[in-house]
């Protein structure tokens, strides 16, 4: 329910939002769900067996998403990694959404990065603690403006890659995702009530690695777009 600012004991923060490509409109962000180890080769490089895992998710904060083109190197870490991903934005939601109806919920797509303080994430894993310190820090979700599905359709295949300073680091194909977009939406809706404005980061291919201040990251997904981010 909308309320005037005077009803709050402190001034409300602005609604996190992502620009819509080719428009002066914005997509308001409700929650950010990230699927883990959704490409088999990445699961293997992280020391896991993709044949023995069910889908699992962690969250970033809505205001972690950033379209400025700059990634401020975060404090408390000396091992920050890039993870290129397709961004999925939902225009509707619900509970227990059937797989065959899931794409009806999708507003559009973008190119994003799940930046990760790998050293802090590793310590959290070793101690059986949550991952937020490694995943949900400021500006940890660089992304492009969203492209509506009405314009590009629903990408199910196409090359996804990331270069760092002109050197190819990650490459894969959307068809290599273990859990496809409809399956992710359906599975998530059995755990949470999905809402318009929800974002899903759909997983990263193999080749994740460290970045340094001054690096330039260029990412691409066929049919979706291109992302350029400078580490500052």
TrEMBL record:
SUPFAM superfamilies: FAH. Transmembrane segments: none annotated. It comes from the Bacteria. InterPro entries: Fumarylacetoacetase-like_C, Fumarylacetoacetase_C_sf. Residues 32-232 form the Fumarylacetoacetase-like C-terminal domain. The keyword DNA damage does not apply. One of its GO terms (molecular function) is acetylpyruvate hydrolase activity. The keyword Isomerase applies. Keywords: Isomerase, Metal-binding. PANTHER family: ACYLPYRUVASE (PTHR11820), FLUTATHIONE S-TRANSFERASE (PTHR11820:SF90). This is 5-carboxymethyl-2-hydroxymuconate isomerase. It comes from Phyllobacterium brassicacearum. The lineage of its organism: Bacteria, Pseudomonadati, Pseudomonadota, Alphaproteobacteria, Hyphomicrobiales.
